[in-house]
Design goal:
The chain is of the alpha+beta class. It has two domains: 4-92, Phosphorylase Kinase, domain 1, CATH 3.30.200.20; 99-339, Aminoglycoside 3'-phosphotransferase, Chain: A, domain 2, CATH 3.90.1200. Helix content is 50%, strand content 11%. It has twelve helices and nine strands. The protein has helices spanning 4-15, 55-71, 99-105, 110-124, 138-157, 164-177, 223-230, 239-253, 257-284, 295-305, 312-321, 327-339; strands spanning 21-24, 33-38, 45-50, 79-83, 88-92, 186-188, 197-199, 209-211, 218-220. The strands form three sheets. Strands 1-2-3-5-4 form a five-stranded antiparallel sheet, with helices on both faces. The radius of gyration is 21 Å and the shape is globular. The model has no long low-confidence stretch (mean pLDDT 93).
Length: 340
């Protein structure tokens, strides 16, 4: 069997970057890893993505979605070279000015950045979802939401509980997601948040927002990426900012506010339930301890989403069956990993 290191070396050589210096970049929650390639002679740089799991679909989808986004006039990185079979991708380097980083050292820019991100979505959502994208359907919503009952619920309680418990949860998730409109689907990037958006002030208009991490894109409801942006698991966004950005989007699109807000809260609840499960799994299975500390923020988002009348049944189930992720609960999850 050919060693993956040899495959990577050959890919870099085929790309014409064999003389470049490789500098590792921060990893994300997936199995993918990233390096910056630096050509010392020319000063040019590029980003190398190494995606060894589900590689073919990820690489192919990334390239397809990139072409779509760039065709819409958005700042997705140019793709220089691909190896879909082995899971390697060389793309344009859009820099290091992530929204989260800028908001940390220049907080007065927060509203400008988020307004620009909203304007990108408003433009993106003038286009119907590409026909080749899979739909964000009921089965997908349920499969993702079950990450909560598969991982967080048993770890936080010490037992799965009565056999009927997950069945009731499934029913409530299905009932809530059945309220979502099935028309007007758009390209949903799914992880549209401050650690995947780059500020490119040398460009103009919507091109000032650099886009990353959309290889899992689906055809879904326009509210989903707003939830990703505003109910961020990794940084706090004030209620004032959230309300203002939703208002900005509604004004740009002219959609029905009541129906959109209902969909926003349903998708927010589904997404946050999923994230709580994913972050628990990242800790228990993969040993990534930092994700466990993010769960209380996600829980706070979930509590706000569940206040919508359409989610009354799900809110009741959560209050009755899910322990709040306080210090006691998080320590119980830590103990569960220690015992495994």
């Amino acid at each position: 069997m050919i060693d993956r290191f040899d495959l990577l070396r050959d890919f870099i050589k085929e790309s014409g970057w064999q003389a470049a210096t490789r500098v590792p970049l921060a990893a994300d929650a997936s199995s993918r890893s990233y390096d910056r390639l630096i050509d010392e002679q020319s000063g040019k740089t590029a980003i190398l993505m190494n995606a060894p799991i589900d590689i073919e679909s990820n690489i192919v989808t990334f390239k397809q979605v990139t072409e779509t986004l760039r065709g819409y006039g958005l700042s997705a990185p140019e793709v220089y070279h691909t190896d879909a079979i082995n899971g390697f991708l060389l793309i344009e380097d859009l820099g290091d000015d992530l929204f989260k980083r800028i908001c940390g050292h220049t907080p007065e820019m927060e509203w400008q950045l988020y307004e620009a991100a909203i304007d990108v979505l408003a433009e993106l959502h003038t286009h119907n979802a590409p026909l080749e994208l899979p739909r964000y359907d009921a089965q997908t919503y349920l499969r993702e939401a079950r990450l909560l009952t598969d991982w967080y619920l048993p770890a936080a309680t010490g037992a799965l509980g009565p056999a009927a418990l997950p069945e009731e949860y499934d029913r409530l998730i299905n009932e809530a997601c059945a309220l979502l409109p099935t028309d007007g689907l758009v390209l949903v990037q799914r992880d549209y948040h401050a650690e995947n958006l780059l500020w490119l002030p040398q460009r103009s208009g919507i091109k000032r927002v650099g886009l990353l991490d959309y290889q899992d894109a689906l055809a879904g409801h326009p509210a989903y990426d707003l939830v990703s942006l505003l109910e961020d698991a990794r940084r706090d966004t004030s209620p004032e900012l959230q309300a203002a950005m939703i208002t900005r989007y509604l004004a740009a699109k002219g959609v029905d506010e009541k129906g959109f807000i209902m969909s926003y809260n349903i998708l927010g609840a589904q997404r946050n339930l999923k994230i709580i499960g994913i972050f628990t799994r990242l800790y228990l299975r993969d040993g990534k301890a930092t994700y466990l500390d993010l769960i209380p923020r996600v829980w706070a988002h979930l509590m706000r989403d569940l206040m919508h009348p359409a989610l009354a049944g799900l809110q009741s189930w959560v209050k009755q069956n899910l322990p709040e992720p306080n210090a006691t609960t998080l320590n119980k999850i830590r103990d569960a990993r220690d015992e495994s």
